[in-house]
Amino acid sequence: MIKRLSLASRLALLFAACTAVVSLLAGVLFNHASEAHFIELDQQQLDSQLVALRSTLQGVDSPSLFAQREAQLRAELNRQPELALRVTAQGQRWFDGAPGISLPEAPGLHSLQNAGTEYRVYNAPLVAGQPGSPQLTLMLDITHHQHFLQRMQHLIWLTVGLSALATALLGAWAARSGLRPLRRMGEVAASVSAHSLTQRLPQQHMPVELAELAQAFNAMLGRLDDAFQRLSAFSADIAHELRTPLSNLLTHTQVILTQPRPLEDYREALHSNLEELQWMAQLVNDMLYLAKADHGLLMPKREALVLGDEVEALIEFFTLLAEDAHVSLVHEGTAHTAGDRGMLRRALSNLLDNALRFTPAGGEVRVRMVETERGVTLAVENTGEGIPAALLPKLFDRFYRADPARREGSSEHAGLGLAITQSIVRAHGGRIYCESELGRTRFVIELPKGD
User: Do the bridges between strand 303-306 and strand 117-125 make them parallel or antiparallel, or are there none, so unpaired?
Assistant: First the structure.
C-alpha cells in the first residue's frame, strides 16, 4: 500500500515545482533575449564591416581591378581577426578567406557551425541594387557568444535545481509552521475523552483562516461537554428517583414477610406496592417519551383544533381539584391551530396541574389565548409566590424541582412535566417560556398559526 503524502509534504513539493517552472521560464526567456541581443550586435558589426569593405572595393568589377585592391583588402581584414571574407563574381571566387567551408548563398544573415566553430554569415552584393555585382560573404566568428550562452544555460539549470531544492526545504518549514494550529487541533481532538471535555483551542493565536474552524471546534466541544454533563446528571437523577420507591418496596415487603400475617395485611401491602410500581411505570414511560423527543421521533398529527374548546374541557376536568384547593379557574379568548389533540392536552394538563399545586388558597389560575397573524399565544398564569429569575432557565430541565422541599424522590411529581411539555411544544414548531414577577407566574406557549 502506497503511503499518502502529508499536507506539508504536498505543499513543499508544490512550492518546489512552482519555483522550478518559474525559474525555467525565466531562464528560457533570458536565454532567448540574450541570443536575440547577440544577433542584433552581430548584425550591427557586420553592417559596419560591410560599409568598410564596400569602401575598400569601390568600383571593382573585374578580377584585375580586384587584384589591385587585394593588398588593401587584406590589411582591412587583418584589423578584424574574427572576420573572414569570400568574394565571388559570375561563379568565380576572387577571394576566399574560409577555404573548404560550404557557405549559404542566400542573401541575408545566417548561422553556421564548422569544426566546432560558430559563425554568423552575411551575404550582400558589393554594389546594392546592381545586377551582376560581385557577392560579398562575411563570416564572423561568434564562438565566444555561444560559449557564453552555454554557460548561461548551465547556470539556469543549476539555478532551477537549487531553487527547487531550497524552496522545497523552505516550503516544508513554512508549511509545517503554518500547519501547527492544525496539529494543535489534532492533539486536542486526540486528548478529548469523557473525562476531559473542558479543553479548548486558543482562538486568539489562530490564523484568520483557521479561527472560524477553531471556533466551531470549541463550540462542538462545548456542546459535547454540556450533553455529557446532562447525560451524567440525567443518569444520576434516574437512579435518585428510583432509589426511594425501590427502597420502600423492599422495606415494606421485608417487613410483611418477617412473620405470618392475616390475609388483609397482605392485601393492603400489595395495594401499597402497586402504587409505587405504577409511579415507577409512569416514570419509565415519561423517560421513553422524552427519549423519543430527543431523537425527533415525536410526530404530532395535524388536525384543526379550537384551543378554546380544549382548554374548557381541561378546566372542567380540573374543577373539582381547584374547588378542593379553593382556587378559581378562568379562561379568556379562543384561538385556532393545527396540532395533535392528545399531545397538546397533555402539555396543557401539565401546566394546569403545576399552577394549581403552587397557587395558594383563594388564588386564581387564568388561561389566556390570543390569535394573531403570526400564530397563537396561550398563557397559563397563576397567583402566588414568584420564581426567582435565576431559576427560570432551569424550570424545563428534567427532574428539576423549584421547591427545595421536593428534591427527594417521591411517588409523584418527578419533575418531568415541564420537560415533556417543552418537548411537545417544540414538536409542534413552537416555543415555551416562563415569566415570573412578585405574586404572579406565567407560562407562555407560542404556536404557529394553523392552516
Answer: unpaired
